[in-house]
Design brief:
The protein is an alpha/beta fold. The protein contains 16 helices and 18 strands. Strands 10-11-12-9-8-13-14 form a seven-stranded mixed beta sheet, sandwiched between helices. The chain has a six-stranded mixed beta sheet with strand order 5-4-3-6-7-16, with helices on both faces. Helix 3 crosses helix 4, helix 3 packs antiparallel against helix 6 and helix 4 runs parallel beside helix 5. The protein starts with a helix and ends with a helix.
């Protein structure tokens, strides 16, 4: 599709928005309700195309991590939208007398969404729900790497929505580049930092406001006060669910050397307990992803790391890649420089809190951070002295499931946030309004009248009073 065709299509959607720039609560909720109905009516079919894209993906994993997040977002918006849309009064200074000031939320226009392949349903529809809640129209470009799911989702959306409400365009890199260069009223991108930079450059030509949901190397810190089996079980789930292809998966673990052997044993026990069935272990999205996992593990071992299988070979011979923990990993290894995004867990041993904080802060700011332990003072230091998009304490992933918690990164892990009210705000313009009235009912004392030229003693008195 040429850029001219894209531009014409965007003009059509913008024209439709201009005819209805302030949709009612009922209209917004009806659109969101259609997403909910679309998903509910096609769960089984979507599970099948997701499994086809990943090679293996259990339907429960898809229902829990994809569909439930969408249903939760719909329910939350339905409960709170009226309140979010209300104007918010703000106080005014005394010199403005009885003037009134407030902010009111207004829709932006047409929101472009570029969704990724790792959770191709949730990460396409949850931002769309937020955009509809804010009163916008939506144009979605799903990832070509999850081609079956993206194509089927596009078919469903076309069945349930008119393209001037919710438009979908599928395609590869060339289509994505043209899409990112369009003059949207807001562009929302979820994906890697490298692609995020390219999207941001493209959006800059039109000064398009942008939200970037990226990733990074999210640490899991295991304090010696932690219960090792619980910490290991949580880290294994966060690392191996969806085959490790989760933007907030624990990227590496930091442990005290005195508990490292116990921790590794507990990791193996937890992995065997949770993921021994190959049918419940999600596969790599494609051959390129699989080859990258092998490259990361091989590079680390070649540089002196010790690879420890997390699953017993018996019963898992069909796995294309065996999940591993890596010990004694060189800081020059690729696995320590890049986001892993797979079933590989480097383990870093650091024995004092100051060094842990310094180690984390010397790297790019992560999208998530996990801390396990019982020492509240240590926990507070980690929270206060590190920077990350979000934190879960004594578990993994769950902060992203709380609708009232904004979800987003910081620095290299992203900019902007969504989920719940944060999503509504991200796709809204908060307009500031001041209605000027007279001072003490006297119109000649209202607003800027006392400050206007010619500047005489009255203005001097006003300045003294304002001080």
């Amino acid at each position: 599709m040429s850029i001219n065709r894209f531009t014409l299509q965007l003009d059509e959607i913008k024209a439709a928005y201009a005819a209805e720039p302030n949709p009612t609560v009922a209209v917004r909720l009806e659109r969101i309700g259609r997403i909910e109905k679309m998903l509910a009516a096609n769960e089984e079919k979507i599970c099948k195309v997701l499994a086809a894209d990943f090679g293996t993906r259990h339907s429960i994993e898809s229902r829990l991590l994809e569909f439930q997040m969408v249903y939760q977002a719909c329910k939350h918006v339905r409960k709170h939208l009226k309140e979010w849309m209300k104007p918010q009064l703000v106080s005014t200074p005394a010199f403005l007398g009885s003037s009134h000031a407030w902010t009111q939320m207004q829709s932006m226009g047409v929101v472009g969404i570029m969704s990724p392949w790792n959770y191709p349903v949730q990460l396409a529809l949850v931002p769309a729900i937020a955009a509809f809640a804010a009163g916008n129209r939506v144009w979605l470009k799903p990832s070509e790497r999850s081609s079956r799911t993206s194509g089927f989702l596009a078919t469903l959306i076309q069945e349930y929505f008119h393209p001037i409400e919710f438009c979908v365009t599928v395609g590869g890199t060339e289509v994505a580049e043209s899409f990112a260069a369009l003059p949207f009223d807001h562009l929302f991108f979820t994906g890697s930092s490298n692609i995020g930079k390219r999207v941001m450059r493209a959006a800059a030509d039109h000064l398009t406001p942008i939200t970037l949901e990226l990733g990074g190397k999210s640490p899991a810190i295991v304090d010696p006060s932690a219960k090792m089996n619980d910490a290991a079980a949580s880290i294994i789930y966060g690392k191996l669910v969806n085959g490790g292809q989760t933007c907030i998966a624990p990227d590496y673990a930091i442990v005290h050397s005195s508990v490292s052997e116990t921790f590794i044993q507990e990791l193996q026990n937890a992995a065997q307990e949770q993921f021994a069935n190959p049918e419940e272990f999600t596969g790599a999205i494609d051959e390129n992803q699989l080859a990258r996992w092998h490259q990361l593990a091989k590079d680390a071992v070649n540089r002196g790391a010790k690879a420890i299988p997390l699953l017993s070979p018996s019963g898992n011979l069909g796995l294309a890649f065996m999940p591993v923990a890596l010990l004694n990993v060189s800081e020059d290894a690729l696995v320590m420089k890049e986001e892993v995004f797979g079933p590989i867990l480097p383990i870093v041993t650091i024995n004092d809190l100051d060094s842990i904080i310094r180690y984390i802060n010397e790297g790019p700011k992560p999208l998530a951070l996990y801390w396990f332990g019982k020492e509240k003072k240590v926990m507070q230091r980690i929270l206060n002295e590190t920077r990350s998009g979000g934190v879960t304490i004594n578990d993994t992933l769950l902060h992203a499931a709380i609708e009232d918690l904004p979800f987003g990164g910081i620095g290299g892990s992203g900019m902007g946030a969504y989920h719940g009210r944060a999503g509504f705000d991200a796709f809204s313009h908060r307009k500031s309004v001041l209605e000027v009235r007279g001072f003490l009912g006297l119109k000649f004392l209202g607003g800027t009248k006392l400050a206007r030229p010619p500047y005489r003693k009255g203005v001097e008195r006003l300045l003294r009073w304002l001080k």
